[in-house]
Structure formats: structure tokens, C-alpha cells
Amino acid sequence: MGVVTIKQLLESGIHFGHAAKKCHYKMKPYLFSSNDGVPIVRNRIHIIDLKKTLEAVEHSYKKLVQIAEEGGKVLFLGTKKQTQHIIKQEAQRANQYYINQRWLGGTFTNFQTILTRINYLKELYKQEEDGVWKLLSKKEVATLKKQRDKLEKFLGGIKNMSQLPQAIYIVDVQKDTIAIAEARKLGIKIFGIVDSNCDPDSVDYIIPANNDAIKGVKLITSIIADAAIEGSGSNQEAPVEETTDESGEKPSESTPETVDVEKTQNNDQNVEKEKVSTN
């Protein structure tokens, strides 16, 4: 049995691409097309071919299992506000690293400097636990807490990362180009969700999908986490902080008023007709 089905992909809404005028020409092989190879447009948007997505997900899954089996770690990267909680939750579930805030330039290419800041963050926690802060003034404690909280915000997901990961999974490859450039320079394998307006050549393992569909991002990210868990044999789940920010809408240029999913995907699944409406 596969790691996911066409029906699950369909129901998650990851088949809706961006406006046809914003399509990256290298993404055409991954779009739902007519018999003569011309991408089909519905309500001014392209439709991603879920058969291609299914193949890509399964290929990425197998490769990530292999990486984890060999002792490799994966860094989950998703800096969009509406996907931050997903990145953190799934990375923690798989006992992997994550960054869900702004990517700090040099995180990979200048890792020794980043490691210095991580060590300082750990030292601040240790000082508080050892009661050192009790000997300080309120003003000094407030300053240290501010430093600690800022470091935790940006480095908390990698504070246990003593060396570079073997792979990075990116939700938005168009936004996090610096991370991609650093990973490519150091030979770190890049897995990424690639929407219809993105360059598929920017990553090593492409997953063609709508990276604005929250349900879809959750599905794909959970599959990536499952691969890491299977490969490492880890079932340890770290505690996850509660979050209420689970909303996020597809930009208007990418969301059709009504799309007949059964016709656009032309698959054999007995799926009820799905309609997606804009706000």
C-alpha cells in the first residue's frame, strides 16, 4: 500500500495551481494537460496533475527513509505564518529539526557562528535553572529573558543540531531561496513543495503541489515526518505547544470560484464533486 492516495491528495486541495499567467514554464510537465500536452486552464488557473504528485511523494518518501536509515537528519523549513505550527508539530513528532521563523543567512554556510549562538541560548537556560538569575537585578533578568526569547524564536528548533543535517524539506521554495542556495552549496539534499509558479530545478526532490493549501501542506509534511520516523525507527513524540493560528487562505489569484474536480483530474476515483470558493 502506498503512503498516500489520489483521493487524499484531491481532498486536501493541493491540485490548484497559481494563475495561468504566473506559471513557470518548467512546471508544465507537472500540470494537468490535454492530449496534445497543452496545460488545461480552469477559471484562469492551472491544475496540478495529481498522478505526478503521487509519484513524487512516493519517490521522496523512499529517499527520506533511506537517509534516516543511514543516520541522517532532516531540517523542516516553513516560514509562512499559516504553516509555522505544522512545521513545528511534525518535526517534533519525527524527532527532527525545524525552522518556522525567518531563515538566518549563514545557518548552513556559517554554521559555526550559528552554533555559537545556540550554545549561548543553552547557557542562558542553564543559568536560569541553576538559580544564577536570582542573584541579578530585575533589569538584568529582563534583559537576559529578552535575549533568550529572541534566540529561542529563531533557533529553538535547531538548538539540538550539533552538525548540519543531511536533508532539508521546504514548504515554499520560492520564498526560502537563501536556504536553498546554502543547502545546494553544501550538498544537502533538498526536498520541496513546488507550486505551479516555482522553478522545479531549485530542488533535488520536487513535490508538485499547492503550497498555500493548509490541509495539503499538513498532509505532505506529515508524510515527510513519517518517512523520517520509519527510517530512524523513532516513535518518540516531543511535546507540542498549543497554537491557535491554523488559518490561511490561498491568494485570490490562485483560487477559482468553482472548479469541477472530477472533470479536471479525470481519475477513476469515486470522489464526490468538490467545490472551492473564494472568500
UniProtKB/TrEMBL annotation:
Residues 260-279 have a biased composition (Basic and acidic residues). InterPro entries: Ribosomal_uS2, Ribosomal_uS2_bac/mit/plastid, Ribosomal_uS2_flav_dom_sf. GO terms for cellular component: cytosolic small ribosomal subunit. GO terms for biological process: translation. Pfam families: Ribosomal_S2 (PF00318). Residues 232-279 are annotated as: Disordered. The keyword rRNA-binding does not apply. Keywords: Ribonucleoprotein, Ribosomal protein. One of its GO terms (molecular function) is structural constituent of ribosome. NCBIfam families: rpsB_bact. Belongs to the universal ribosomal protein uS2 family. This is Small ribosomal subunit protein uS2. The gene is rpsB.
